[in-house]
Amino acid sequence: MTNLKSKVIAHKTSNRPNEVYCRLCLERRMLGLVGGSDFNIVLGRLQRYVLKSSATRLTNSTHNFQRAQLSSQTTLYRHNTSTHKTGPLTHPQQTFWRSSCPLSLPLITQRALLSHGSNTSTAKIKLRTRLAVTLLFGGSILSAWWYMHNEKEQEHRRQRIEQLKQVAVGQGDFSLLDHRGHRRTKKDFLGSWVLLYFGFTHCPDICPDELDKLSAVVATLDKDPSLPAVQPLFVTVDPERDDVASLEKYVKDFHPRLIGLTGTPEEVKMAGKDFRVYASPGPKDDDGDYIVDHTILIYLVSPDGLFLDYYNRMKNDVQIAESIRNHMKNYVKLPN
């Protein structure tokens, strides 16, 4: 009996109850050696131990399962690494695992990474598609606008040319002598831009000022190599005093390309009438000198021989040069 009691006391103080201890407690309970309170304490310790042991076994089972799964993945990776030269991987996701995913990641994390990579690729494809559609749509609109704008400009130029053809200015021909004595006609200047001014050599101030302005316009346009050369012409309205010699001396004071034109009174009158130029000699003074009242305009003639524009005394050389530059840029050659 002493032996049994010492065994019970030893097991009672132990942290790990077992089957022998429980059996001894039951025996003592049956013999009346263990009180009710002691038996309840032992039974409680036994229940707590059973619960703790169950939790420990569950945790160990989970860890063992994960280690087994990781081991199988490692084996598969090594197999594919050693045999990738002879054939492709058997699963599409294995390529992604071998190149970018650590082997130590859990299965759920690996699946999440795969899903994230797939979503990112899809988003990039959608963004590129939207950009391509936007660029295509915008380019189509811009091309359509550009085409309509050019068509409108061409139509406007055609209408302008038709209007100029109907205007009875500069439509005729002329035949005059230049300041070197050579016969010149309108056909000699076809293909060139022409600035034309009507005046007379005895003009005290207005004609020299206008010819200086005309010369400045030609010099300004000559500075732009992309523009064609402009031919300046000076036609006298006083043929009785402005002969070839007088014109040759007079034109030397202005632009070097300036050509002076004169002729008989009838020839000069026909040339002025073609451009609707008014010219009327005034009364003579005691010295026989007189002033000619005439139209003060600078005419612009296109390479087709059509009158395009005119500039009065209110226009300066900069404004005239800019206007001529615009005419040159918008010029459309007439069909033969």
Radius of gyration from CA coordinates: 56 Å
Characterize the biggest β-sheet.
7 strands, mixed
Strand content: 5-15%
Q: How is the largest sheet built, in terms of strand order?
A: 2-1-5-4-3-8-9
* Percentage of residues in helical conformation: 55-70%
Shape: elongated
The structural class is alpha+beta
Q: Report the strand count.
A: 9
Helix run count? 9
Q: SSE order, as H and E?
A: HHHHHEEEHEHEHEEEEH
The averaged pLDDT comes out at: 75
Low-confidence stretches: 1-5, 7-17, 83-105
Instruction: State the distance separating the first and last CA atoms.
Output: 143 Å
GO biological process, one term: mitochondrial respiratory chain complex IV assembly
Membrane topology: Single-pass membrane protein
GO molecular function: copper chaperone activity; copper ion binding
GO cellular component, one term: mitochondrial inner membrane
Detailed description of the structure:
- By secondary structure, the chain is α+β, with helices and mostly antiparallel strands.
- 56% of the residues lie in helices and 12% in strands.
- The chain contains 9 helices and 9 strands.
- The strands form 2 sheets. It has a 7-stranded mixed sheet with strand order 2-1-5-4-3-8-9. A two-stranded antiparallel ribbon has the order 6-7.
- α6 links the parallel β3 and β4.
- α2 runs antiparallel to α3.
- The longest helix has 60 residues.
- The protein is elongated, with a radius of gyration of 56 Å.
